[in-house]
Amino acid sequence: ESLRSKKEINCYNNIYFTPVFTSELSETILALIKQGVSGVYNISCDEKISKYEFALNIANTFNLDKKLIHSIEYNNSIKVRRPLDLSLSNIKLKKILKIKISSINNQLLQLKENEKKINEFYKFFSIIWGYIMKAVVIGGSGFLGSHICDQLTESNHEVTIFDKNESSFRLDSQ
Question: What is the pTM for the complete model shown?
Fold first, then answer.
């Protein structure tokens, strides 16, 4: 959001992590459940990347201005101490499930494609209904559904969400 709003951001060049896209995360969790696996498993991508490099990859994928991203170094003299390497190993996970986790770039491309689908869905319904509508969103607490709900409520539409993971609830535009 900051980059889209043309706001500068600072990102650590020496804190590393292994991000994973939410759909990849949920698919992997379902696979673990289906196989009846128990224990502790790290669900992460194979690639260790700095927060700064990750921000640059996001900017590249979404055609945002990389000049707004500034590389800074984290040092432990800051009040909140944290490890510099937050990366996780997914070797145990891949061995038990016999799967391959998508690369960071492929996951970002998938995120971009999902965002495109959300925008197309919203444009379609905005053309059909040029007035305030009442909408029911099935699966509204998931990634796609939550973004659709956000866009609908931002445009003053009334949204009712049904999701198997949540009690049903209603969002009124404010």
Answer: 0.68
Give the pLDDT confidence of 136-153 residue by residue, as tens digits.
888 777 777 787 888 788
Report the C-alpha gap between 47 and 116 in whole angstroms. 25
Neighbours of 108 (CB within 10 A): 19
* 30, 92 Cβ separation under 8 angstroms: no
CA distance 47 to 31: 21
Tokens 């490099």: give the residue: 53
User: Considering the chain, what is the average pLDDT of its residues?
Assistant: 84
**Strand ranges inside the chain, DSSP E:** 9-12, 16-17, 49-50, 69-72, 134-138, 158-163, 166-171
